[in-house]
Amino acid sequence: PQTIYRKDYTPPTYLVDTVELGFDLDPERTIVASRLVMVRNPDSVRNGIELHGVNLQLVALRMNGRLLHAGDYDISGDILRIPAAPDDVTLEIETLTAPVKNTTLNGLYVSNGNFFTQCEAEGFRSITYFPDRPDVMAKFTVMLRADKSKYPVLLSNGNLVEEGDLGDGRHYAKWEDPFKKPSYLFALVAAKLVCQEETFRLKDGRNALLQVWVEDGNLDKTDYAMQSLKNSIRWDEERFGLELDLDRFMIVAVSDFNMGAMENKGLNIFNTKFVLANPRVATDVDYAGIEAVVGHEYFHNWTGNRVTCRDWFQLSLKEGLTVFRDQEFSADMIGTDTGRAVTRIEQVRTLRQAQFPEDAGPMAHPVRPDSFVEINNFYTVTVYEKGAEVVRMYQTLLGRDGFRKGMDLYFERHDEQAVECDDFRAAMADANGRDLAQFERWYSQAGTPVVTATGRYDAAAGTFELTLSQSCPATPGQPSKLPFHIPVALGLLGADGKDLALIVDGANAGTTAVLELMKPKQTFRFTGVKEEPTPSILRDFSAPVVLNYPYTDAQLLHLFSHDSDPVNRWEAGQRLAMARLLKMTAAVGAGDKLALDDTFIDAMRKILADESLDSAFRENALLLPSESMVAEQMEVVDPQAIHLARQAMRKTIGSALRKDLLAQYEANQTPGEYSPDAISAGKRGLKNLALAYLSAAPDDAIYALAQRQFDLAGNMTDRVAALTALIHSAAPGAADALERFYAEFDNEALVIDKWFAIQAAAPVTDVAAVRALMRHPAFNLKNPNRARSLLFNFCNGNPAQFHAPDGSGYAFWAEQVTTLDALNPQVASRLARSMDRWRRYAPALQAQMKQALQKVSGSGKLSSDVGEVVSKALT
Ligand code: HT7
Ligand code: ZN
């Protein structure tokens, strides 16, 4: 497979003004007729028309009315070239495809008897020949024809302009999208579906029709998605002055989907997981996910659709920015400062859990990658979440108003254009009169920067000096790095726990100052400091870096008790916990006795019982770093030792804090009607964390508590928490509860996913048990949600079993990656990533992991998706 480089970008040879598409939909034999009105691109440095096409059967190709024959054009790989073409061209292309045979869920496919499309990034080329690149933007008109009884609903982008019967049991619908768009935003749906709809008044007084389409039987689960859509529209009007530009906005749910959702213009297609919810089937986390993803896809309408990417290397231009926007939306929907901080804590956790490891592994790449083999492999936590951090840093450096000015200028300059990350940076800089040249390195350099801080207090002079130095580890293809432009938000705490006033260069800088670290090493000096302070560095996680500061336990305990910045308050607790987890892991390895100090337990108790703090904050403060986070901190990873140490720590907390945990368990009940609001969800979160700790040191009373919650729970959050507690504590009622849960929800696919997921991640589940679950009639490898629920949760969420010393987990992984690859390369290559960090394990495990990687890499017909992942892992 070929590597594609960003530096090789050339403009398209022809531009497309209009596209007329006609679909005669049939699962076995769909005819696609396309009429492209094209014009030579004056900016092109090359000649001839170039169209992309994959697995298409070409029936006829006409240029300006003349039928072309072999010799007039040539097809080589994925490119159809017409070397001799006039400046103005109308191409008519007829192709055939068989959607029912398409298991990749890319392009046009069939799910549960209905037709759907997924075109990002390069799926449109498997529907018809087209210059399938994001910098070719055209106006689309789409005619859909299909059997009326099987596919009563025919949808595409934009506005419905005509519909009717064709006789012979077929019908048609014609859709017109008034906006120019790249082909990756094309979508169609032909299906038997029902919808919840509503007319919504936009800020400028226009009315928009909002629809949420689902399969019959699911209309009782669409309210939250609809509410989230309305909230998103309002929020974008208010926060960014961005309005919905269409008369109609549709969301369609599909159960077979490779990712979360897709922002097709006016016709968003969603994984059912991010649409369907009612208290019986969905957890608080599901509700939050729906709000975030509905928001995310809606916000793409401006950041992605109206202004799109010049090429796929610029993916973070739309994804990083849109993740940032959905993060801000979710935080604003909660409304309180602590609620906002809790969303930030969750973002930091995702970064540490997933993005930092990616940035330190064989697939590390800059936010704006320089090369790829398979673009689908670059829908990553780096492009999305680190990309969002990069956008957030503009806001931290420029302030909210400055950021808004930059956004306004970005749209003023680039509406209906396909642009680059540099254009966004230029808009931010120019709108604020700032030089952001060095900031470019956040886009071009991979790796997580390390900021090392030291403090020096001079009592006589009343000064505190903070020296910050930065470095960044080597990453594939980038042996050395230049300094980043890093915003470091800082506060200083006095002995009473209160913030000290910050005086820099004689001026009052409030209680949190944003320091700009731009050199390899810089010293910042604060005057008028009357006592030795405890520095609170990187408040609100102001940059995606690793911070080293020689904190003492006493300082961390001080910050954990008092920091006015809730993110750093949480962070202090995480540092305390991580130090103990690492010490206990080492003790397991050495066969020493495991002990947890009272100081730590007392600090946990204090936070747990502090009812002045939101329950959601307390839950997060008490949550221990995950096993994989501990693994990231170790030179040589020992998954079993980490698991034993963390379990021992949970057990100690469960028994030492039993009384306090039981008290909070009772105090955080949420009687009455279920509501997914942040306060109620936070209470359930804390209550269920208390249950989890209690179940780590169980006795009959605790088993009974979990059992009672399982039996009486009025919502899925409590149900799942109780079931998990029963299984993890090997309670006497665990097997029975599992069986009952299945029987009660066997018609609810998303709940059955949870049933598989809970078992996959349970400490007792070994490879043999996973294989047994794969034989369950409800298991289906072709459905990505189901595959993720079992295989991904086992390979990524059950490290002690996955890394079994006999290598059985790795052999299983190799088998599943290979089998999945033949069905769905995109999903297979995500599973392939589970082995990214293989070089960090003990030699005996490493050898077996390498063998498994080699097995996959050597297996005959490998997709470019999996091929790229395993070959980079082995390099
Ligand atoms: N922009 C969407 C990306 C996406 C996608 C990419 C590759 C293969 C399948 C896909 N489904 C959706 C999702 C988003 O970020 O909003
Ligand atoms: Zn997105």
Automatic annotation (TrEMBL):
Residues 86-185 form the Aminopeptidase N-like N-terminal domain. Pfam families: DUF3458, DUF3458_C, Peptidase_M1, Peptidase_M1_N. Keywords: Aminopeptidase, Hydrolase, Metal-binding, Metalloprotease, Protease, Zinc. It catalyses: Release of an N-terminal amino acid, Xaa-|-Yaa- from a peptide, amide or arylamide. Xaa is preferably Ala, but may be most amino acids including Pro (slow action). When a terminal hydrophobic residue is followed by a prolyl residue, the two may be released as an intact Xaa-Pro dipeptide. Residues 553-874 form the Peptidase M1 alanyl aminopeptidase C-terminal domain. InterPro entries: Aminopeptidase_N-like_N, Aminopeptidase_N-like_N_sf, PepN_Ig-like_sf, Peptidase_M1, Peptidase_M1_dom, Peptidase_M1_pepN, Peptidase_M1_pepN_C, Peptidase_M1_pepN_C_sf. One of its GO terms (molecular function) is alanyl aminopeptidase activity. Its cofactor is Zn(2+). It comes from the Bacteria. Residues 447-549 form the Peptidase M1 alanyl aminopeptidase Ig-like fold domain. Residues 224-442 form the Peptidase M1 membrane alanine aminopeptidase domain. It is an enzyme of class 3 (hydrolase). Its EC number is 3.4.11.2. Belongs to the peptidase M1 family. This is Aminopeptidase N. It comes from Massilia soli.
